[in-house]
Design goal:
Helices cover 31% and strands 18% of the residues. The strands form 2 sheets. Strands 2-1-3-4-8-9 form a 6-stranded parallel β-sheet, with helices on both faces. It has a 3-stranded antiparallel β-sheet with strand order 5-6-7. It is built from 9 helices and 9 strands. Helix 1 packs across helix 9 and helix 2 packs across helix 3. It has a single domain, classed as Rossmann fold (3-Layer(aba) Sandwich), CATH 3.40.50. The radius of gyration is 16 Å and the shape is globular. By secondary structure, it is of the alpha/beta class. InterPro entries: AB_hydrolase_1 (IPR000073), AB_hydrolase_fold (IPR029058), MES/HNL (IPR045889). It comes from Lacimonas salitolerans. This is Alpha/beta fold hydrolase. Pfam families: Abhydrolase_6.
């Protein structure tokens, strides 16, 4: 069986994977999640958070070949971590995540989508180095198909998202090219348009992609189904 390291997306933390970890363990895997700098229990000020720091935190957590799973924004740091420590990355799995394009930051990729559902809801900090989303918008953007209580739980744990990690590109080279990559699309996503998830993976082999009929937070909406898809990719 496999070792999974689960990487959260923007403003989230390891806490968002709490329902998925036991599901993966029940399937025979080891699974863990970490807080990236400035998220969850990590007290790094958002003004000091960088994409490099995200990648460093991931590589520091790797000591054996591991399947890296990145949600949403997490697609960028898992890709960079694979460049830095390819020997410890068994597979990259993107869960309704951005797959870095050469020369483009995540923010630039977001603007390539046919529409930007998140953009009107972003509230910048006064120093313009971070952003948040108003509590009133969380249900419709992230959690509309999740169990009762999810919004309250998330609102208590979401943090300021630093802008720097989304403002710089990731350069990929031959170091990470041999690493298998898989993608889980979310067909009812209200944050990253499903159409753009298709665009990002349109030239991938069909067997490397699967689709869940849920929104942007499958770890809350369908944790058992998400774990089953991760298990399937690991077995394949």
């Amino acid at each position: 069986m496999s070792d999974f390291l689960l990487i959260h997306g923007a403003a989230h933390g390891a806490w968002c994977w709490l329902d998925v970890i036991p599901e993966l363990q029940a399937l025979g895997h080891t699974a863990r999640a970490i807080d990236l700098p400035g998220h969850g229990a990590d007290a790094t000020p958002y003004t000091d958070v960088t994409l490099d720091a995200y990648a460093d935190a991931i590589t520091a957590a790797l000591d054996t070949p591991t399947i890296l799973v990145g949600h949403s924004m997490g697609g960028y740091p898992i890709t960079l971590a694979a460049e830095r420590a390819p020997q410890n990355v068994q597979m990259l799995i993107y869960v309704c995540a951005y797959v870095p394009k050469p020369g483009l930051s995540l923010s630039q990729m977001r603007m390539e989508a046919p529409y930007q559902p998140l953009l009107p809801h972003i509230r910048m900090t006064d120093d313009k180095q971070g952003w948040t989303v108003a509590r009133a918008d969380l249900h419709d953007l992230f959690y509309h198909d999740c169990p009762p209580g999810t919004v309250d739980y998330a609102a208590d744990n979401l943090c300021i998202q630093a802008t720097q990690p989304t403002s710089v590109p990731v350069t990929t080279t031959g170091r990470s090219a041999p690493i298998p990559r898989r993608y889980i699309r979310c067909a009812d996503d209200r944050t990253i348009p499903p159409e753009y998830q298709i665009t990002m993976t349109q030239d991938w082999p069909a067997g490397h992609i699967t689709t869940m009929g849920c929104a942007h937070s499958p770890f809350f909406a369908q944790p058992a189904a998400l774990a089953a898809h991760l298990h399937g990719f690991a077995q394949g």
